[in-house]
Design brief:
alpha/beta; seven-stranded parallel β-sheet; 14 helices; 12 strands; 14% strand; binds (2R)-2,3-dihydroxypropanoic acid
Length: 331
């Protein structure tokens, strides 16, 4: 039997990335790309020191207790709300994510959703495909302008800054943002972005884009009360995580025209989508594809693989979410 480290690749990935991993490790592979239950994941992880996961595999205290040989989990995503980081740190397990490589691609998509929602692209396309377009009308699918309007960003990390730059420099928008901590003056100037309170952000934004990480504190950060503060002409875009928006409250606000439109790439309990969102017309719905260009997904898979290789061969993860020093202090 080989004494190379054993690594579980928990979802299907690019064949070339799998081959790179095979040149370093003994690989167990989810060839059929099945969605394993937590119990099945626990069983399949037995005897493995590393795992490559996506956002759909939860790494929590129960799993860590059942897999004491595990040392590193590389998530092929920048978000890592599927990791219980304190539990991983306490168990001596490094977690890694894939920052930077998806920033611009994801910012492009956020902006595309904003444009599509504000200019009613999906709604009007459905109308056309249904054969309902038989005459011109002065107010047919009249939406909201994007250029020159006020862009609000909640969560001003790398992707939020990418959206701000697109809005300010490409569309002449006034950019306001709210974040846990205020950006330094140089970054604010580069993004032409002004810091405001969350309430001011909700009240002033013509288009509000959510790019904050999911944490228990951010659960339903946008619910009925927040939607009530927004302009009736406003657009809401969520490319962050499901659970940050109360989807039922949003569907109601869209139905009541409390806000004009929404663009959603992420959903509470996805891949299930709240049934009320499927029946309101003024929302553009996409299946969590903001980072999905071939080049970017390949870069994400390669970075996840590089993290496994760097940690398991040299003890130095490239983009950890908890550090070897934190692990040493905790164990
Ligand atoms: C991420 O990287 O977090 C994106 O949401 C893709 O899963």
């Amino acid at each position: 039997m080989s004494n190379r480290p054993r690594v579980l690749v928990a979802r299907a990935i690019f064949p070339e990335v799998l081959e790179r991993l095979r040149s370093h490790f003994d690989i167990s592979y989810n060839e059929n790309d099945d969605e394993w239950s937590p119990e099945e994941l626990r069983q399949r992880l037995q005897g493995h020191v590393g795992a490559l996961t996506t956002g759909s595999q939860r790494i929590d205290a129960a799993l860590l207790q059942a897999c004491p040989q595990l040392r590193v989990v590389a998530n092929m995503a920048v978000g890592y709300n599927n990791f219980d980081v304190p539990a991983m740190t306490a168990a001596g397990v490094i977690g890694t994510n894939t920052p930077d490589v998806l920033t611009e691609t994801t910012a492009d998509f956020g902006f595309a959703l904003l444009l599509a929602a504000a200019r009613r692209m999906a709604e009007s396309e459905h109308f056309l495909r249904a054969g309902q377009w038989n005459r011109w009308a002065y107010d047919m699918f009249a939406g909201q302008d994007v250029h020159g309007s006020t862009l609000g960003i909640l969560g001003m990390g790398r992707i939020g800054q990418g959206i701000a730059r697109r809005g300010a420099h490409g569309f002449g928008m006034r950019v306001i943002y709210h974040n846990r901590s205020r950006l330094d003056a140089a970054t604010e100037a580069e993004c032409k972005a002004a810091y405001v309170s969350k309430e001011e952000l909700l009240r002033q934004a013509d288009h509000l884009v959510l790019v904050l990480p999911y944490t228990p504190q951010n659960h339903h950060a946008i619910g009925a009360a927040e939607l009530a503060l927004m302009k009736p002409t406003a657009t809401l875009v969520n490319i962050a995580r499901g659970g940050i928006v109360d989807d039922a409250a949003l569907a109601q606000a869209l139905r009541d025209k409390r806000i004009a439109a929404a663009g959603l790439d992420v959903f509470e309990g996805e891949p299930k989508v709240h049934p009320d969102l499927l029946t309101v017309p003024n929302v553009v719905l996409t299946p969590h594809i903001a980072s999905a260009t071939r080049a970017t997904r390949l870069a994400m898979a390669n970075l996840a693989a590089d993290n496994l290789i760097a940690f398991l061969t040299q003890g130095k993860p490239l983009t950890p979410v908890n550090t070897p020093e934190q692990l040493r202090a905790a164990t």
